[in-house]
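Weekly modeling sync, notes
Attendees: S.R. (lead), two postdocs, one rotation student

Agenda item 3: backlog of single-chain predictions. S.R. asked that every request posted to the team notebook include the full sequence so nobody has to chase files. The rotation student volunteered to paste the first one in as an example of the format we agreed on. Action items at the bottom.

Example entry:
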Amino acid sequence: MSAIDSYAELTRRVSKNLTPLRTHNADVMQGFGALSKAALAPGVLDEKTKELIAMAIGVASRCDACLGFHAKALVRLGATPEEFREMLGVAVYMGGGPSLMYAANAMAAFEEFSGDARRD
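Predicted structure, as returned to the notebook:
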């Protein structure tokens, strides 16, 4: 596994830690929620394609929580391991060596949420 022991636990912890922001910064959090909903709404690109883009950006920006949340969404949307690996290739192309190292973490998150802990 990567430096993160469990992406499921990480996403739960981050969600819990956002509770004070939902309470004390409700307008900001509601605005972010609306932005997320609008950005991911199906249009010319479907939701899965948009989530693949979001994951690639999460890899390039080395955001652990992003890897967890977007891997979970991609599994829910039926992304295949082949689609996921192809997206990682583009993320590595755009982000170079650091993204290559982070692509391994993204693969671990996807496998965890897929229920497939095996690594090829």
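Discussion: group reviewed the output briefly. Residues 4 and 10 are 8 Å apart (CA to CA).
Action items: rotation student to repeat for the remaining queue; S.R. to check formatting next week.
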